[in-house]
Task: structure prediction
Amino acid sequence: MLPAGSSYKKNFVNFFVNQIKGVSILKLIFAGTPAFAVEPLCAILDAGHEVTAVLTQPDKPQGRKGVLTPSPVKEEAMRRGIPVFQPVKLREEVAALAAYGAEAMVTCAYGQILTQDVLDRFPKGVWNIHASLLPAYRGAAPIARALIDGCRETGVTIMKTELGLDTGDMLLSARCPIYDSDDCGTLEDRLSRLSAPLIVEALSRVERGAYSLTKQGEGFVCKKVAHTEVDFSRPAREVSCLIRGLSPAPLAYGRVGEMTLNFFFAEACDGADAPCGTVVAASAKEGLIIACGEGAVRVLELQPAGGRRMSARDFLNGRKLAKGMRFEPLS
Result:
């Protein structure tokens, strides 16, 4: 009997239709954790590949009550009736992978380092979906770093996984523009959608053996991003890029008076003859504008510490933030 759910039945039918038609299919394991990985997982299933199991990080406590919450990838796998495997340390559960009978594995922001023992389990390779145009932005937080650095373009790369951190040979890549209206959340959504057809094409080539790999040049590794205080002595565009790159999490912040404000979105604008960090406008009509080392930024969305996310105009209604106040400089 098939597990309940039209999505699982659709994929089950696709699998056998593709076999009859002679379409290339693979038996594989998908390893991923955040929402970014859901689109490519769905695309792989809808293309008719047989995902024998999904690897994802263990459920984590969320919210003030610490309720154990499954990852977005686990939720999608359960919805589609796919077995879920959540080892705390995959390197200690290598033998268990063999039971799933997979030829290949696809990883997408899984969150654990793969050992050589894991890589050796898959005769048709382990293929990683990485959200940058390698060799740029290897490692953690490639989307945030591209925004913070003011890049005008980024993309997705499908690479063959090796022991080095995102250093494997590249199979396919696709480019994606970065707009001034992007924050990390909107750019992540677009890159996730871009990765879906790209991994399907990559797996088709892998199954047919009709592919070539390109070695990476020299690159650099970016570290995880953290809750960061804004340095308003920097040019306005740099400040805007920092705020957008850290939104919707972990956020950039500033301190003014007795208030700490988290910033969700800001855009560069014309400056004013005022020291950096000075509030040059603070009204429902003009919005919140803060002087920078060059130019100024207009903050559009923010969150007072302990409060909720809101527009800057709503925040300024009745708040004690006035023109001439100054955000504290970094020490």
